[in-house]
Automatic annotation (TrEMBL):
Protein name in UniProt: DNA-binding protein
């Protein structure tokens, strides 16, 4: 059975909910989206994107270019 347990860093409830609604519950899933696409989600702001960018970089990953 596959688990959807999140490994996202703390970014605040509105941003976390917006990501979940968009289907992003794991950090690795964010490599398929651009920063602009995340910022377009209601509840996700520059601070949350910066935290996520740092978390991705810590794993040698990044957002999709675009």
């Amino acid at each position: 059975m596959e688990t959807d347990e999140s490994d996202l860093p703390y970014i605040g409830a509105p941003a976390r909910r917006a990501l979940a609604v968009a289907g992003h519950t794991r950090l690795e899933q964010l490599t398929a989206v651009t920063e602009a696409e995340l910022l377009a989600l209601h509840g996700v702001g520059p601070k949350a994107v910066g935290i996520l960018r740092d978390a991705l970089a810590g794993r040698g990953l990044s957002f999709r270019e675009g």
